[in-house]
Write a structure and sequence with these properties.
The chain is an alpha+beta fold. Helices cover about 50% and strands about 5% of the residues. It contains 38 helices and 14 strands. A five-stranded mixed β-sheet has the order 9-4-3-10-14, sandwiched between helices. Strands 12-11-13 form a three-stranded antiparallel β-sheet. A two-stranded antiparallel sheet has the order 1-2. Helix 15 packs across helix 27, helix 20 crosses helix 21 and helix 20 runs antiparallel to helix 25. The N terminus and C terminus are likely disordered.
Amino acid sequence: MSSTRQRTTAVPKRKQCGCINHEQFAARRQFHLFAVSGIKRRLSYKKLVVRKLITTRNKYVCSLCLHYSDRNLTSATEGATRSATRRSDTAPLPKDGNDTDEAVELLQEPTETPADNPFPHDRHKTDTTPLTPTTIADEEGEAAEENILSGIRNCKDNLKEIVGMRKWEEFRPEQQRALSDIADLLGSIISRDIFNDSKSQLSSYEVPASVIPWLKERNSMLVNFMTATTCTSLDEDMPAKKANGLAHLVEQTLYVQNLQSVTPFAFQRNVVQYSVTGSKLATNLLGTWEPAGAYTTIQKFINREVDAPKCPAGDVHIAIDNEQKVGKTSGRIMVDSKVPVDVCTTLSYIQSPRPTTLQNNEELKPSKWQIRDTDTLPLLIRDIQQQEANAKEEFRRYREAYIEDTIQRVLKEQKEDEFTGKQQDYVDTALNQQFLNLNNNVCRTCNHVFPISAGLQNCPNCGHNSRQHQHNFDPYHRTSSCVPSKPSSVKVGEPCMVNPNTRATVKQVLTHVREQSKTGEANQRKWTIVCADAVPYLLGTQLQEVVYICTVCSEQVNVDMREAHSNEHSARQPVTFTKMFGDMLFRPGPGHIELNMARTLLKFLWEPLLSRLVKLLGFRTGRAQDVVRNGIDHHRSRQILTSLLEALSCELVVPFVRREIEKKCRPHAKSFMEMVGNDANDPTYMFIWHVAFTLLLSFHLYTEAIRKNNHKRMMAARSAFAPVFYGTHHPRYQQLHAREMLDRVQCPPEISLYMAETESFSKSGRQNAGQGADFVHEETNAFVKSFLPPGRISAEVWKRVCRKADTLQKMKESCRQTAGISNENNPKRHKRFDNEVTMMRREVRGNGLLSMPIITDSQSERSIPKGLSSATLDAELPDMIHKMEENYKQYMSRLAETSKFGGVKMNYVYVTAEDRQLGEQIERKTKAEIKLELSRLIAEFPISCDQTVLSELKDEVRRLKDSDTKSRCVELYHDLKGQLEQVLAECASVDDGSIAPGDEEDENN
């Protein structure tokens, strides 16, 4: 017989607080229930155990019992005894000039009955009547409400009396405890409201808020207590830093009440910290200290799905550029392993604050006016030459004004030496310091010598600051500003997940741009402007010329296949073709042009000047020098070139200024230009003159014009510097310059004016903070990239972050404003490089490069230009500007004749003799050039040589075909050159009377 056990369902025990006084402490009030196992170390819990209000067997205790664990009330039966004991033990306060009997009675324990007490729900009362569940809400009628209001007013009046009597530290301990009980009571009144407020923040913390309105929406008792404690007032004129601190206090109060809360300003701080550091640890730490959310909270916020951004209405520049995200490797070696890289093309919509609607006019589409054939190109080239001639005249005026400023500055530096009677300046003092092996600073203003100190910036004698300009100094003051007073609008567009480095990918990107900007759609813009760097710009303009769309079948047709495609359609159907990208006007990025101008100058001037100077600037290792030479850091490159311009320009005018002082004449720029044009003949002086006042000055003017959005000065700098691209090996920027100049001279006047007004954009509205659209887009790319998670990311993450970019930017700006950090509209203090310029001038003067502008025939050692390095410079360097301009003319002439860009053999400028030797190697020449060299070698054979051998050599050269390889031509060149050298050697030995090797036998006979 099997026994069965009856199963009964156990009734779950109800979780409840184990405190004896729970009904009195927490009657009819909401509370949190804590497990005893998690709060054993709390002092409040230990107090309950010591006072035997709870046993260690109890598993739960409420928050209110813990909060009032240190109160004197223990049970309802003990209340009367303890209350009477405290009343009898309390002695009256000693009277003085500031105390009253009423104040003494107020600070003692209350003894009123429940009928007299306006707070029947008070948990701290100590009369003998047990606490009842009666609450304020249970009382009816206006009498109860008036009773409450009367009690509050009486309490307020009494507290006002006490506050006016003493400071906190003047109260006795028992009085301080009584006041603390009052504060504790007030805090318990708003505790629940604060908790509910902390929960309500979870639905609104993502929306950027203003500090003052947000504080006014919080509990008024809490905010008023904090404003009174911090001696502040909550009004719109409240300083930003104080308002931020007050908001921080309120946020921390909400956080202590509810550890799960997230408040808007703390969340903003965490988002900005994540964008700056990219650290998961730092984000989680801040989320632990403040109600700022954890790393996962921020990632969910960033990756939350939002709508795709829309292109704004009106005229817009759409800047495109590729952006890379390098992923993390596995950390182990692998066969054929590669670093994971994600590449996409990002878009930015940039608008000038001056609204225009030219892009809604279909008659202004580039396909309507970009007509270039063999008939129109010569006229366009002539217009370009005329425009550049006017621009160069503007550059000459700017150069003359710059030289005049330099002469006056150098003139002020000159002081007559009391012993020698010669003119001296602070550079001579620096040379003497170097000769004595002393490393001291020399003030350029007062010629005072003082030791170098890391913390000493100002001259001890005159107070001149050698490292920073004054706050209101504008480094581009020579050019007037055309920057609008309002900042330009910049919005992030939808990215395209390809790399624009081929025709196929650029076509895909441009199609994406058309879709996002809604170009060509009904009631939308008819054309748009696309700004890019060199590679996408050139590929886009080439696609614009060669890719057409058939109007009948909408098929893409190459320019050479249009006739064949027309034959595929019926003869009854008229077939026309339109340019696929005829609704886009391409503009090269001014920032990338400036960047490549700097890189060209760094490489061109490296051997003559910079290799020595860069070492003295601290770049001593080969890798560090390569970083400078390749222009990796553009800000550093600009600083080096600007300092070099100032140093060379001053040293160039020093001999002239001192000569004029000796002649007791007033030096000025016009007489200096006459001296250079008529008398100066030193190759080194003329080479450095062209370097300083043409190459470096045009780069400086271009930088200045972009910062000021000055179209006239910008074109002057471009026209002066453009031949440098044609004198050095820069085929991309040779074609880029020619294509852009064709657009500028051919576009309608409305577009020409619009382009002149939008050479650069200022995101801050500062009058000297303009940037090219490409550099504005670079900043946007960096901002977007700062919010991407580490490692490789998907296309969806790219898109979500780009879509969220505007919200993140607003959040960052809101965080800056609430923190009281000065915004970008405030002028910054620009750096000055007095010590670096002094070092460069000292090196140039110490090597005697510019000491003699005029040399005589007897000074043959100065017939070849010299530099600061030991490399031998090319003898034709002083004529470099002429050669560069001739190359430019040759390039444009061929373009006018053939309608093709490039294909011109340039006569490049060689910097050193070694460069010329390498450049003239036969292996570097084309087959046509090698054939010309073969003909030249044939012509160099002397008449006395064996004519039969010479005829064979001529026949062998004639037998060369176009199909023969270049290596065959090079081999024949070396054979012919060897035989020529042998024949010339034999002829020389016969002239000397010696016996040629083949004539020994005839001589013996």
